[in-house]
Amino acid sequence: MAFAGKSPRHQASCRLSWRAKATTLYGYRMNKVLIVDDHPVIRLAVRMLMERHGYDVVAETDNGVAALQLTRQHLPDIVVLDIGIPKLDGLEVIARMATFSPGSKVLVLTSQAPGNFSMRCMQAGAAGYVCKQQELTELLSAIKAVLSGYSYFPNQALHASRGRGAGSETDMVNRLSAREMTVLQQLARGRSNKEIADSMYLSNKTVSTYKSRLLLKLNARSLVDLIELAQRQGLN
């Protein structure tokens, strides 16, 4: 559309008006969405789904550090977050977001089995948890529920948060810190100390310290025992 014969101030006003219309739908403000996933194909699929259903995707990124920066910048209504992301793991991202942007609801979208991780995400402050193996329509249902003020978690997560035997493997895993859980997960995937250190921005010595803690906390006699336990818990 041309602005022939209009003053620069009027032209700027018109541009702002059109920009405002782009962020509204039928008189209502579109909910702002931030997408955080280290797989470009997943980000594209989620973006297309969101935009097709009237959501405003304000930004996307592939790592936890940028996720925090973009949340501060855009204050999204909802953050669709994978927990297996580089630079800063998803559990830590959730906890930090809860402190400086409590209005941003975090919905975890991950390939991790819900058994252990869904409860930990709930404890960190996430509002919902959806597995990537499910249909994309499940993500839409979760977003609508979360934006309406509800939590959206698998039934097994809710059951897991109730009485478990104090000495069970699952209970011991659930007692781990977010960092310990991330190290355990990477060990289960066969990562070396150096690979873990590089991905988590830690020193090799710090990773070795975490491994020693894990052996002690999980009553494992060796690294092989530790890896087998992690795999039994579906952490690989």
What does this structure look like?
Residues 32-147 form the Response regulatory domain. This protein has 236 residues and is an alpha/beta fold. The chain folds into 2 domains: 10-160, 3-Layer(aba) Sandwich (Rossmann fold); 169-232, Winged helix-like DNA-binding domain superfamily/Winged helix DNA-binding domain (Arc Repressor Mutant, subunit A), CATH 1.10.10.10. It is 54% helix and 12% strand. The protein is built from 12 helices and 7 strands. A 5-stranded parallel β-sheet has the order 4-3-5-6-7, with helices on both faces. Helix 3 runs parallel beside helix 4 (90-100) and helix 9 packs across helix 11. The longest helix has 15 residues, at 8-22.
SSE-based structural type? alpha/beta
Strand-residue proportion: 5-15%
| Cα shape | globular
- In CATH's first tier, which class of the largest domain applies? Alpha Beta
Taken in chain order, the helices and strands follow as HEEEHEHEHEHEHHHHHHH
Share of residues in helices: 40-55%
Alpha carbon gap, first and last residue: 54 Å
Low-confidence stretches: 1-27, 161-166
Mean pLDDT: 80
Query: What number of structural domains do the residues give?
Result: 2
Supply Rg.
Answer: 21 Å
Number of strands: 7
Count the helices. How many? 12
Q: CATH topology of the largest domain, anyone?
A: Rossmann fold
Specify the biggest β-sheet. Answer: 5 strands, parallel
What CATH architecture of the largest domain would you give? 3-Layer(aba) Sandwich
Give the CATH superfamily of the largest domain. Response regulator
Sheet with the most strands: spatial strand order: 4-3-5-6-7
GO biological process, one term: regulation of DNA-templated transcription
GO molecular function: DNA binding
Pfam families: GerE, Response_reg
Keywords: DNA-binding, Phosphoprotein, Transcription, Transcription regulation
